[in-house]
Each structure stands twice: as structure tokens, then as C-alpha cells.
Amino acid sequence: MRFRRLTRYSALVALAVLVLSVSAQARSVSIIGPFQNWAAELDEAFARFTEKTGVEVEVILATSWPDLYEKVVTMSAAGVPPDVVYGDNLRIMDLGERGLLKALDPLAEADPLDLSRYPALVLDGLRIRGRLYSLPTAISIHANLYNVDLFQAMGVPPLPTDWLGPELTWDEFVEMSKKFTVVGSDGTASRFGLAAFGYSGGFNMIGLWGVQDVDPDRTRYLGTDPAVIRALEQTTGLWTEHQVVGGSFYNQTAAMWPVQPVVLNELLRLRRSGDPLNWRAAILPMGTARASQASFHSLGITVNALNEENAWALVKFLAYDPEGVVLFTRAENRVPVLRESAMDFVDRWSREFPEGDVHVYTEAVQVLWDWRIISGAGASEILQYMTQAWNLIRTGQSSVSDAIHQIAPLVNAALQRGN
């Protein structure tokens, strides 16, 4: 009898523990992201969510984007996935294609959410074969920062800020970059026109010529297309032919810097430390099209989330509800996509840099260009192949055409493995 009584008692305890565990889960939600260096508004956003819903937020830190991806895959395989995933398009689209994220279209339709509040180009960039696996929070888009003092010293007029205007052609941009590049008698440059230009020789800047290096469904590499080759010859030529890329924008050994808005924090730190840089933001040059390459940042829900209802509530609060969106995107420090948070971004940074023309970043969404090849499975591998091609081009071992034809079978194989 005693054994049976103990058994019944143990069963009651186990049942109580299970009920408490389920109850605790019902009052919590987990989110994973590389949040370690984010601003204090992140904690405030989570606190506001808890105040409104009574649901506690458990934060799972990732040390980097690759670490985030590995954690989501591993935790999902173990049956304990995070409920919400914050990621860039490379990771989010990969997880979506691999069936680890839930399609959000049914939830958005049932709620219902007014998806027209988001820029159509942003939503299109996040869709996988017509389905939406995350809600966007912000984009990392490019503007061209330039050193005002250097421009004035060289008698060069301020750069334009209207993305839809005809000013600043590619040829003008190249000549301007050459004008600012200073090479000594020993052949060493003490200043460059450009601090950088995109990824690995500007492979992500080919949108300036209205081309893509992959088909819309990411099944076929188009890099060997003659129009893509010509675009890459233009971007890589900034290094190989014109030799105008190098130096540092921060220490004024480069006059211009096409860059994403994440650098605004460092520019602010420099100003507050007494070493301000007199800069402004401007548009990128036009090849045959005006474009600004963007990465997408968004929130998705794992397909086997333990707390799907709470997860959807958190995603909506951080990516749709203006109260949560403004706080989250302040902490995120990229270009917000909703009107309310975009206005907050411009207002906040314009107060810090009244002459900086930071509105150029938010207005770049008008000419947003999606480098689709990095949005999904196999993207990390493909980037490695592109780096290999760039190294061949940069060192003079291969022409652009030969280098691209060399990696084309490898890129196509990576795309096929991802589908």
C-alpha cells in the first residue's frame, strides 16, 4: 500500500509539474537573434510587450549570423526550437526554404494584417515562391557618404540626394573617384576616391545596370550572361583598372563610402569623442539604372514553435505595431520599413547630424534592389565561390568572364542542392 501511495503521490507531483510547465510556457515566448550589442530600446520593447500581454520574453543570444543559423537548425532538430527567429535574408530565406519556418500568410490573413503598410519591394524580397515566411523590420540599404571638407577643398559640388533624378552617372562617379585619389612618386596612394564598393569587387552592385545573376526562383545562375559580365567589369574595374578603392573614410584617406546605415553609430561616437567627420549622405551613381542593394531583416516563427500564439503576438508587436516597431528598430539601427519607424529614424539621426541628409537612406527604398542569389539555401557557399572569383580577378590571374565561367558550375550545383 505504501508503494502504491508513493506511486500515486509521485504521479500527482509529476502531473502538477507538467501543468505548471505548460502554464509557464503559455506565459512565455522565446526569440533568438544576435542582440548582444543592441541599444537599450530592445529591453524596453520586450518589457512593453510583457506589460501588454502578460507574456514573458526569453532571449536566446547568437554571437553572429552563422551562429544563429546553426542554433536554430540544432534546436529544431532536438525538438526545442526557439519560437521567434530574427535574421537577415540569407538566414531567414534559407530556414524558410528548408521548412524550418512557418508560412505567415494564413496568420496575416486571419488577423487580418494590412500588409500594404510595408513597401511592396520589401515584401517581394522576402517571399519564397509566393509565400511569406517572416515580417520585415528593417533593411540594410546603401547610400554614398562623402567627406564634405574634401569635396570643398577640391572644388567639387555637393553630391545629389534625389534617387529619382538624372544626376551622377557612372562615368562621372568614376572620374570623381579618380580625382580624389592621390598617388605619390613611389606609386603609393595616400588617399583614395572610395573606401569600398560593395561585396568582393562589387558583385552585389550589378543592379546599377539593371541585371540579376540568378533567376527569380533561385534555380539557375545567370552570372555568365554577357550583360552581367559587363556590369561586373565596371564594378571590378574600380580596383583593377582605375585603382580608386582603399583607405579609410573615418581617417579621411577616402573621400566617399557607399555603405549601409550601421556605420552611423560609429560616426556618432567619433563626433562625441571630439573627432567629428564632416560628412553627408548622397545617392549612388547610375549605370543604366538607379539602384541601391539591400539586405532584409525580419522576424519569423519556427514551424514547430512551442508557443505559436505567443510567437505571433511578439512578431506583430515588433514588426507591425508602431509602439513596438519604433523601439525595436531603434535598437536594430537599420533603415526601418514602416512609415512610423522610418520617420522616427530620420528625425532621430537628423537631430544628431542636421547637415547629414540621412533621409537619403530611407528614400533609397524607392530604388531598392534585391541581390536575390544570397536569399536562401546555399547562399553562404555561393558567396565563397564569388570571393574565389574576385580573388582571381583582383590578382590579375583571370578576366572577369573567365573567373565567372569557372565558378558557374559550382554556383549552379549549390542552387540545385538548395532546391
Summarize this structure as a short list of keywords or feature phrases:
five-stranded mixed β-sheet; alpha/beta
Structural overview:
With 419 residues, the chain is α/β, with parallel strands linked by helices. Helix content is 45%, strand content 16%. The strands form 3 sheets. Strands 1, 2, 3, 6, 12, 13 and 14 form a 7-stranded mixed sheet that branches. A 5-stranded mixed sheet has the order 8-9-10-7-11. The chain has a two-stranded antiparallel ribbon with strand order 4-5. The longest helix is centred in the N-terminal third of the chain and has 25 residues, at 2-26. The N and C termini lie far apart (61 Å).
Query: How many strands, what sense, and barrel or not for the largest sheet?
Result: 7 strands, mixed
User: In percent terms, what proportion of residues is strand?
Assistant: 15-25%
Number of strands: 14
What does the oligomeric state look like here? Answer: single chain
Shape: globular
Low-confidence stretches: 1-24
Instruction: Summarize the helix and strand pattern as letters.
Output: HEHEHEHHHEEEEHHEEHEHEEHHEHHEHH
Indicate the mean pLDDT. Answer: 92
Distance between the termini: 61 Å
Q: With helices defined by DSSP (H or I, 4 residues minimum), what is the helix count?
A: 16
- Rg for CA atoms: 24 Å
Structural class: alpha/beta
Helix content: 40-55%
